[in-house]
Design goal:
With 98 residues, this protein is an alpha+beta fold. The protein has a domain at 17-78. Helices cover 16% and strands 12% of the residues. It has 2 helices and 4 strands. The strands form 2 sheets. The chain has a two-stranded antiparallel sheet with strand order 1-4. Strands 2-3 form a two-stranded antiparallel sheet. The radius of gyration is 21 Å and the shape is flat. Residues 89-93 have low confidence and may be disordered.
Length: 98
């Protein structure tokens, strides 16, 4: 008999600014159909900063990849929860030997 638990595994850096899976699936379907993938298209940046010394990469460039605007917080190129995460891990094994 073997029992294995590993429900609350730690995550040290969780990206919380990802393009939603539903949108990625639609883009995959476009690609498989031979159509251009919309999230890869360069478009004029609606968030461009009038002052180039203010902001980050997403707000400094006059052109931006369209998929950046589909992120929950598009003004940031990456947004992660740092640290040791919320949960610990408890992994147990039990073996019965003959």
């Amino acid at each position: 008999m073997r029992v294995r638990n590993g429900v609350h595994l730690q995550q040290y850096s969780t990206n919380i600014n990802q393009i939603p899976d539903s949108l990625l699936l639609r883009q995959e379907a476009q690609s498989l159909a031979g159509q251009p993938v919309a999230i890869d298209k360069l478009i004029p940046n609606p968030m461009v900063s009038p002052n180039p010394s203010i902001g980050n990469g997403a707000t400094q460039s006059p052109m931006i990849v369209a998929g950046q605007l589909d992120r929950p917080v598009p003004q940031y190129t990456g947004l992660s929860l740092g640290g040791y995460g919320c949960c610990g891990s408890n992994l147990q094994f039990r073996c019965r030997l003959p």
